[in-house]
# Entry
Amino acid sequence: MPLLLGTETEYGITAPGRPDLDAHALSALVVEACGVPATPVVEDSRHRMLGNGARFYVDHGHPEYCTPETTSPTDLLAHELAGDRIVAEAAAAVSQALGAPVRVFKNNTDGKGQSYGYHENYLLHRATPWEAIEAALPTVLVTRVVLAGAGRVGLGPASTHPGYQLSQRADFFARVSGLDTTQNRGIVNTRDEPHALPRDWRRLHVIAGDATRSPFATWLKVGVLGLCLGALEAGLLPTVALADPVDALRTVSRDLTLAAPLTLTEGTTATAIGVQERLRDAATTFAEREPFPEAFELLTGWTQALDDLRTDPQRTADRLDWAAKLALLNGYRTRDDLGWEHPKLAQVDLAWAELGERSLVTRLQTAGRLAPGPHAATIERALTTPPADTRAHTRGTWVAEHAEHVIAVGWDSLLVRGSAKALHTLRMPDPFRHTAVETEAGVSADRLIRGHDRREP
Amino acid sequence: MSERIQRQRTASVQRAEEAPLVVKQAQTDDLDALLDEIDLVLESDAEAYVKGFVQKGGQ
# Structure
């Protein structure tokens, strides 16, 4: 199965010294200050497409970054980290202009009742029955929290009870399935906007995950779900299903021992780790039959993480956000004899998510306590270079090299003006086409228009 | 794991070396030294830092 994935991150934002600037105004300033090639800001629109094929805009009072379409977890990771850097550098530029710090955070709650999203997108075949997706996904997403939770100080949407839980998002899901993303959220989101030929494709929009800071956790998070979806489409996913996914999400998130029994529809119980092991076995069978990007590394990393979580969760503090953050918090709790209600612990939780030069994650990596991410050069390249093997290449090339010809840019089409002033709609309904190998490099806009592949997909 | 997945490995191993995600680093400093270092980054007024972070909502 061809893998196509991308993520959308809504960043938390605050400027403590400028209470006159609300979240929308601050976010707009950050998007305007984008330091990489991008479509211009026009009038009241704060929607920009970037030369690396990404989208950067203001949404619900947050700066939001959508990665371009990528075909492997490693490429996705590089582009997501590039997004973090673009946002952090834009915030630093705004801080300088305002003379007051503007802080941006990669987390999913303010701890006071509000949550904002980290959304994952996976392309699935239209032929895969929606009922099968809806039946399988809650179990995968709820148990994935043991690997992909970002960790959170505080229990309840508004942190009304002191304590620590694995997930940032768990307290903000009210039902198993639904379309809403701002209230009464469902673990399975039913949005069906493929941004590709609907006859062939569905875009699965996953809203239940956490934004993670550990590069390994981000890579594993999307890789594990990608493998599970591959197994699902191949008919290989086990029928294991949680009896009450919404309740299980809270249980898994609040169980630091990872030993809580979850009731399955078959009447028996299993732990989240036990369910993940069954999913891992199915994914292994799938990867034996069909090629999947980085399957060996993913299955190895997945297995090692599950084994370590079984033996002692603290063994994963060098890779998984929730365990790394907990190790840090426990360090302060021991050293300063703090209870979970102490504001210092909420401060560390928030500081964990802060991007830029104050980043705790960078300090942990420098100290050798957290696995490093991709090489700096890989992220540097992703700031300005779109993935070569998806239509993001064509989008990014137009924005970076022919901005003066670009009238409008969407995920699946471009509206451009040739030198004779005629308008041309360049459709890209197949996300796997319009790649670098299909496109002539370094040529004029007119030549790109003539060369645009208009074959029906 | 099967030979099939092993065979697929060659190409992606090079990628993995590019991105040393799973390499365990030697833990150089002890935890207390790191906590002291982080204390220098954190504001002295934890309560104000946390209370000041209020978001409007989102998806």
Chain A touches chain B through 74 residues (CB under 8 Å). The two ends of chain A are 17 Å apart (CA to CA). The CA atoms of residues 178 and 189 of chain A lie 5 Å apart. The mean pLDDT of chain A is 96.
